[in-house]
Design brief:
540 residues; alpha/beta; globular; disordered N terminus
């Protein structure tokens, strides 16, 4: 290369951070649109729940949309939903069996409505909001729907300029007071706390549920529905289009016991806002998180297909991922030395070994997500400090560190469902890249289950429970092995071949269609190349 004698990789050089919130410089300069930005920016397109596994580019997509459009960014941790989870009154009624879905929807609708009005009318003080409410009150004296909407806003008008945290506390306290009043005289206020509902008699519990339900059902959803109509017809038009973006819902912004209920209510609220044509509320969710939400909040008559039209599932092909790599490499080199366009092919050897193309080698060790490719290349160029190019040795050495990091990241991604994932992956160590499940012997499985039961006897997740059951002779060892293979498949560690006439199926390539009951000892197992090094798998 013409600049090889001048360009060298600096120490700690990188092509960006794995997490989007730490990668703003590269995101602005190196964003690659894989076709998802256009439907997301289209307010007439129903898709507004951005779905993807960790590292698929959800945050980057929202970041780019906020750069190009008028957008309100809502951070879940700023909403003070922990005030709700710390409410002993709400915990009491929830444990008694009172559904709080309507209340949670009220909270989300209220948060979005207030943020939208603050943005549209630039409300920054009590005087601003009082002026707006007065103007609206005079304008809609004859329209019953609009009058109800304005009356609802009147209840909160002098607090619009307050932080969202304050408003959530205020509205929660009102509901708490109504719930307490509903059982006053029957249950002392001091008894309305977590754990006491289980001590009620069936008759007392039925009465609490009935009274609590009456309070929740009286929540002013009718007025809020009128507010949506008001926003659609009188506030937002084509000249005042705005996006509301909410991300990081998989982080610890609220207690686990309430998180799934709040996210379910958020999804329903996003659907409700479809009627406001020039407002698009967009939420980013991990695929495994939305599956967990529906699993733990499923009720009678629930139909997940009602929500699927809202989904925008992120998918990347090889050409798009290599474009991500090219843009970032070019930006890194351009910032260091030259304005000439430089791609990854200018910096890496053409092949790994005799036949394998280097680009294919890198991509084969990802689950087709940008974050993994960025992390892999960063691991490589860290070893190329003070050098103008990358060698095959650097790629192989960088792969070792990358493989270990990916296994740890996989554990973090799936820890809610499978906290024993890494321990169980020990069953795959030093295996052939492709093998039949029966090649893991009975003795190996039983020894593992006994050791795991002794070491982690308190865990209640699926794999730990099955390991104990094998150790205690309750279930055969093959049941545990099938369950473990299914978990490895779901998390992306392996691909499975359950029928001789079919190819290997990978969960990251589409909806996971293999169920545990179809996995037998004859099932083919292919360990993903990403994990070969950390598991000691030899490709030969």
């Amino acid at each position: 290369m013409a600049y090889a004698d001048k360009f060298t990789f600096r120490k700690h050089a990188s092509i960006g951070a794995a997490a989007a919130e730490e990668d703003s410089r590269f995101l602005s300069e190196c964003f690659v649109d894989n076709g998802d930005l256009e439907p997301l920016a289209d307010c007439t397109d129903r898709r507004r729940i951005v779905l993807g596994r960790t590292g698929a580019g959800k945050s980057a997509l929202l970041y780019r949309l906020a750069e190009e459009q008028d957008a309100i960014v809502i951070k879940p941790e700023t909403l003070s939903f922990n005030y709700i989870t710390n409410s002993t009154v709400l915990q009491f009624f929830l444990e008694a069996g009172v559904k709080l879905d309507l209340f949670f929807k009220l909270l989300w609708r209220h948060v979005f409505t207030v943020e939208l009005l603050k943005w549209r009318y630039d409300l920054n003080s009590k005087a601003d909001t009082e002026t707006l409410i007065g103007r609206l009150k005079n304008r809609f004296t004859r329209d019953a729907h609009k009058k109800r909407a304005v009356n609802y806003l009147l209840q909160w008008g002098d607090q619009f300029w307050e932080e969202t945290e304050y408003r959530i506390k205020e509205i929660t306290q009102r509901v708490e007071r109504d719930l307490c009043a509903s059982v006053a005289g029957r249950i002392p206020a001091a008894a309305l706390r977590a754990g006491t509902a289980s001590k009620l008699s069936e008759e007392e519990k039925a009465e609490v549920v009935q009274r609590g339900k009456s309070v929740v059902n009286s929540i002013q959803m009718r007025e809020l529905t009128d507010v949506l109509q008001f926003l659609n017809e009188d506030v937002f038009d084509a000249d005042h289009r705005v996006y509301v973006l909410i991300d990081k819902l998989d982080e610890n912004w609220v207690d686990e016991s309430f998180r799934y209920l709040l996210i379910r209510s958020l999804i329903e609220t996003v659907r409700d806002f479809l009627q406001v044509r020039n407002v698009k509320i967009i939420a980013a969710l991990r695929t495994d998180l939305i599956e967990r939400v529906f699993r733990f909040t499923r009720d009678a008559g629930f139909q997940e297909e009602k929500y699927r039209s809202l989904y925008l599932a992120l998918r990347w092909n090889r050409t798009q991922l290599l474009s991500v790599l090219n843009k970032r490499v070019n930006y890194l080199v351009r910032q260091t030395y030259t304005k000439q366009r430089v791609g990854y092919v200018d910096l890496v050897p053409a092949k790994i070994g005799k036949d394998e193309n280097t680009a294919e080698y890198l991509l084969d060790r990802t689950l087709m997500r940008p974050r993994e490719l960025i992390e892999f290349f960063n691991s490589i160029i860290e070893l190329a400090a003070t050098r103008p190019a990358v060698t095959k040795t650097m790629i192989l050495e960088g792969e070792g560190l990358y493989s270990k990091n990916r296994m740890r990241s996989l554990q973090d991604e799936w820890i809610s469902d499978y906290p024993s994932l890494i321990e169980c992956a020990a069953l795959l160590k030093r295996r052939k890249p492709v093998f039949r499940l029966h090649e893991i012997s009975k003795a190996q499985v039983e020894d593992f289950c006994l050791d795991h039961a002794i070491a982690d006897g308190a865990r209640s997740d699926l794999l730990s429970a099955q390991a104990r059951a094998v150790a205690e002779g309750i279930i055969p060892w093959t049941h545990f092995l099938s369950a473990a293979a299914h978990v490895f498949y779901l998390t992306g560690v392996v691909g499975l071949k359950t029928e001789h006439h079919e190819g290997y199926q990978w969960a990251h390539e589409g909806p996971a269609t293999i169920v545990a009951d179809t996995i037998t000892m004859e099932t083919g197992v292919k360990i993903h190349p990403m994990f070969h090094r950390v598991l000691g798998v030899s490709p030969r």
